[in-house]
Structure formats: structure tokens, C-alpha cells
Amino acid sequence: MGIVFNQSYKNIIIISIAILIGAVNTLYFYPVFLKEEYYGLVVFLLATSNLLMPLVAFGSQHTIIKYYSSYSNKNERDSFMSSVILIPLFTIIPISLIVIEFHDLIGKFLSVQNPIIDSYVWVIFLVAFATSYFEVFYSWARVQLKSVFGNFLKEIFPRLSVFSLLICVYFGLINKEEFVWWLTGLYYLRLFIMIMYSFSLYFPKITFSLPRNIGSILTYSFYIFLAGSAASILIDIDKFMIPQKEAISQTAFYAVAVFIATVVEIPGRAMFQIINPLVAKALNENNIKELSNLYSKSSINLLIVAGLFFLLININIEPFYNLMSNPSYGDAIWVVLMISTSKLILMSFGCGPAILATAKFYKITLPFSILMAIAVYFLNDILIDIYSINGAALSTLIVVFIFTVLKILYIKIKLNISPYSTNSIKVLASILVVYFLLNSFDLKLNSILEIAVNTFVILFLYLIIIYKLEASKAINSFINNLFRGEFRL
Question: Would you give the DSSP letter of residue 139?
């Protein structure tokens, strides 16, 4: 697990920096410089492009992760890599033709409630194309066990781009309309940089010979594309549906709350960049012992670290919202709690999603994803009407909880491995005790001072409890190193 901890640690730093930049963008620059209407527009365009991205990528980024380690020599790998980068063209070409032919019809459909959307239909597809190929070449680097620079491009580059463009809007160098198109162009600059970096790590001899298992590759890509398309609905359907039922400004309020809650998954986003190829390797070698080790350790470590982020967010959320210029954003406090809880559940699953996506029984991801998509759609349709944006968050929490339990049971039946132990129960109990204990106190301090005091108390109390529980050797080793002044895992 050494390489996992090493690159996870670096990736956590990168993602944390990205979150800080994103916080400035999301909590101040977007609301002040673009206002709610254009902020909601950008959220809608990017969320809709994310819904489209799995269709465009056609599962090729996951195909690289699954099959690369199964080839024993360079000729086979060259044939595989030469072929896999062409897979997205199967959907990019027909989608482009459809958009050209039916652009006006698509625009009218998307802009029923908010006419501003009509002028930016192409942005959705252009960003989806750039993001899809970025993920392909990022997977190219990850299978070389080099995830850090790609993670920088994935997490920091787009947020830094937004930061720079918002500054340009503020000084009048570009207007709000131009902001959207400049941002689209920067997504393509990011793609170009990722391609150059990936080729520097591994440049295949371009060959037109197909891999020996091309049938299996295309079948896997097709299933993952279907599963990914359905799964992406769970992530972004709420931001797509809210503007159809509410004013687009509500999308901005919801997006801020989701952004805050998403901080809980920082450790997972960091670890998965490097652990997923290792999961695929263990499965390709049929090394169930190593797989079980990756599964259990990733679960307990992510539960501990994500639990800390969960506490820092939810204990500090009220004074944090008090610092914002627009009090309407504070109406989404329950959204933060529900979405962060769903993220904590997902983090406790460890590398389970990677196991499902790369094991021989990977086809089960399709019915799981379809059922999740259907469930979240109908729950959103009902609950948004009743509870507005809180209903969207509640839908996500319900679906994530139910289907995470089902996935854990499925892996247990198939491989007889589980992510949880008695230590998991101890850590979960610790999170709940600290949350309810500190949430019962109202310090009545200045908001900044209250956040500082809460943060100190959480860090001290939670880390002491976790250290005494000895739930994770890796976490305890990290804490010991911190006390010795050695900032490494």
C-alpha cells in the first residue's frame, strides 16, 4: 500500500488546494461577479455536459484501467492503446451530426423555463467532448501509476481557469457571455496538456492491428458506457432538474451547498486515482487476498479521514454561511448535511466501486446504475416539488444508502470479502458522538472565531479518539509522524 499512501497524500494536497480555489470561486466570485442567473447557467451547462460525458467517452477510460495490466508485452499494449483512444469517436461523430441537425430543437427543449440557456447549447457538447478525452488520457497516465500531475490538471486547472476568468469579468476584460466561451476553450487547453504528458510517460508504436480480445474490450466499453451514463444521472440530474421546476437561482444555492458537502470526498478522490489500477491488477492476477486487503484498508482509512471532513463541515456550516453576502445561500444547510452524509457512506465503501467495475461480474454495474438513475429521477420529481432543493438532496441520500448496501452485499456473495469490521463501527460511533456533542453547543461568537474554535476542538477531540481506538495503523503512523514533525505517511 506504500505507493497508494504516497500518491494519495500528494493528491489530497492537490485536491485541498483545488477546493480552496473553488471555495473562493463558488462562495464569493461567482455570486458577486456573475450573479445568480449566470452562475446558475454555468452550473447547468457543466452539469449537463457531465451527464453527456459517459456517452461520449463510451467507457474507454475505464477500459484502459481494466485491461492494460492484462497484457504481458509491449506489442500487445501498443495494439490495445492505439485502439482504445479511437473508441470515443464511435459516439462523438454521430452526436456532432445530431447537434448540427437538431440544434434549435435541443435549445428550445432545454430552455423552456430559462431562455438564457438557448444560446449556449454547443457549450454542453464541446465541454463533454474535451472532458471525455481528458479522462481517457488521464487513465493512460494512471495505469503507469502516475496520477499526481493528471490530478493537478483535473482538480486545480479548471478552478484556476474559472478564478482567472472571473477576475477578467470583474475588470471588464471580458463580459459574462464571453466567460462561458473562454472557459470552454480552456477545457481544450487542459486536454492538450494531458495528451502531451501521457505520451511522455508511454508512447505506443501506432499500429492498426486490433488487440486479440477486441470483442471483450468493446463489450466491456459498451456496458461501462451504459452504466456510466446511468450513474452520471445520480451525480448531476438534480442540477438539471431544479431549473426545470424552480428559478435558476435555486440551482446556484444548491450548487454551493453541494460544493461544500463534496469536500467530504476529498480523501476518496485522492486515493481512487492510484488504487483503481491496483484493484484491476489484483483482479487480473486473481489475487483475492491482495484485493481484500485493498478493500478493507481503503474503507477504514477513507471512513476515518472523510469523517473528519464531515465534522469540520457540518459543525461549522452555520457560522460559515453567516459570512456570505447573500443570506439566501444559508437556506441550503440541510442540503449540506444530507449530501455530505451520502458522501461519507460512499467513502466507507472504499474501493468497492472499482471492484464492481473491473471484476468478471462487471455487467452488474449496468442494472445497478439504471435502477439508481430511475430511483433518483422519480424521487427528485416528487421531492423537489415538496421540499425544493432539500428534496433533491434527500433523493440522493436515500438512493446512495440503499444501493451502497446492495453493492456491498453483492461483492460479499461473489468474492466473500467485506470492507467493514468492528473498527468501522467504532469509527462511525465516534463521528456521531462528536457531531451531536459539538452541535448541541451554541458558542455565540463572531463567525470567524466560532469556526476557528470549532475546528480546533474537532481536530483535537476526534483525532485523540481515533488514535486511541487504533482503528488504522496507517492513520496512527501518520499522526505519530505529525507529532515528530515528519509530514509523510
Answer: H
